[in-house]
Recover the amino acids of this structure.
């Protein structure tokens, strides 16, 4: 993610904090596919993922004024909210429902690319996947297990 | 003395940095890190990767209707926001401080009719200033004390809740101490309870609330402190009677920047995970 995109995201968040109702839609358009992909990966359930993304964007709208640039980019901040909501949702569900053992591949109709977020997200993903590959297998698996399922080793 | 060895902390490091540990484990790891003379570089190494895990996921197009659901939910929040102001007004009134707040310091929302949708941006900005009403309440209480009217004003109006006055004093003292953080607790539901909490740099904690539904039987309200990306840590519980007033003091709660404080209604004391939904919640602002 380049600094120009960071600056643009911060401007959007400032607009949200300032009461610009339309700005939350701009933020949603930019990060809906990344947010939904993360929520779906963690919950393994499209209905739960819907709820998670809804709660996350409402939470982002509610707390936009509290965003602090020193804590990272707007994208990192937003995805942290999505992650927190998603883990919370599966922990609430756990007593009655088994978590999926395997990640289900979404149907092609759900993976049609969104132009803006798809391009930006894809560029970052390639670099991130390379970086993750530098971790040891044990470290990566432990991190991913905890991050995507809320489970310890 | 830490209950965990360095090797045990290293084993728990990945779960710790992604917030996957149980609250008691989080406490134990934090306790170890705060006292261990040995370096734990694994925390920085693993923690540095966490923000990027989310971006390693394949993007997926959400359903078309989700955007509409989000906008509707925000509209509902806007409407609920007016009730937040009403809750703040109730506390100001109950503290006998309403008349001491200069009119110029009052947010302009009071008394305004609910605007018709589409969104009234002026009203929305006013809603976002709602926490100022709690700060106004705090400032008003301090002003009363300075004028020597503390005993007259508060004792009369809180005659059925003398303990709450002391609780409010404790919360203010914690919030006003160097490094203290004040947390304005707003209602999650429309017309719900509201109040104030504070976390001190030494882990001291205070909370006072107004408008809580009375508990029954073994029911208690449990307070939780949540660090950014961390898990909720229970800090104490209390029952509430017909007055709707509740308070809590605790020590050794998690500290740090950006803490969230929440309150849940639990069937029994001793809950280790919160029973959602939160009754009230708020995020810390650095104290003066």
């Amino acid at each position: 993610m380049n600094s120009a995109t960071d600056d643009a995201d911060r401007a959007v968040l400032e607009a949200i904090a300032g009461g610009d109702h339309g700005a939350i839609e701009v933020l949603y358009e930019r990060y809906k596919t990344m947010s939904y992909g993360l929520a779906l990966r963690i919950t393994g359930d499209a209905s739960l993922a819907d709820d998670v993304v809804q709660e996350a964007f409402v939470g982002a709208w509610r707390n936009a004024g509290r965003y602090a640039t020193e804590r990272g980019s707007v994208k990192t901040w937003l995805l942290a909210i999505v992650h927190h909501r998603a883990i919370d949702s599966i922990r609430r569900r756990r007593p009655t429902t088994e978590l999926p053992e395997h990640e289900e591949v979404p149907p092609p109709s759900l993976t049609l690319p969104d132009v803006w977020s798809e391009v930006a997200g894809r560029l970052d993903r390639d670099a991130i996947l390379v970086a993750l590959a530098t971790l040891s297998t044990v470290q990566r698996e432990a991190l991913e297990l905890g991050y995507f399922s809320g489970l310890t080793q | 003395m830490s209950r965990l060895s360095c090797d045990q902390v290293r084993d728990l490091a990945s779960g710790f940095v992604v917030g996957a540990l149980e609250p008691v484990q989080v406490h134990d790891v934090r306790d170890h890190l705060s006292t261990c003379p040995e370096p734990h570089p694994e925390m920085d190494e693993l923690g540095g990767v966490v923000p990027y895990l989310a971006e390693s996921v394949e993007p997926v197009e959400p359903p078309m209707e989700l955007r509409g659901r989000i906008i509707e939910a925000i509209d509902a929040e806007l409407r609920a926001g007016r009730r937040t102001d009403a809750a703040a007004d109730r506390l100001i009134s109950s503290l006998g401080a309403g008349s001491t707040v200069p009119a110029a310091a009052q947010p302009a929302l009071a008394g305004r009719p609910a605007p018709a949708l589409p969104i009234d941006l002026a009203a929305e900005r006013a809603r976002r200033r709602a926490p100022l009403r709690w700060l106004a309440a705090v400032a008003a209480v301090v002003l009363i004390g300075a004028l020597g009217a503390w005993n007259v004003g508060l004792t009369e109006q809180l005659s059925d809740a003398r303990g709450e006055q002391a609780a409010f004093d404790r919360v203010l003292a914690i919030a006003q101490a160097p490094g203290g953080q004040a947390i304005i607790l707003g209602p999650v539901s429309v017309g719900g309870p509201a109040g104030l909490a504070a976390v001190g740099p030494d882990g001291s904690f205070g909370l006072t609330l107004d408008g809580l539904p009375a508990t029954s039987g073994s029911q208690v309200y449990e307070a939780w402190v949540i660090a950014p990306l961390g898990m909720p840590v229970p800090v104490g519980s209390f029952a509430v009677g017909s007055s709707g007033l509740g308070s809590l003091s605790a020590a050794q709660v998690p500290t740090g920047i950006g803490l969230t404080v929440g309150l849940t209604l639990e069937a029994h004391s001793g809950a280790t995970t919160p029973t959602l939904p939160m009754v009230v919640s708020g995020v810390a602002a650095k104290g003066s």
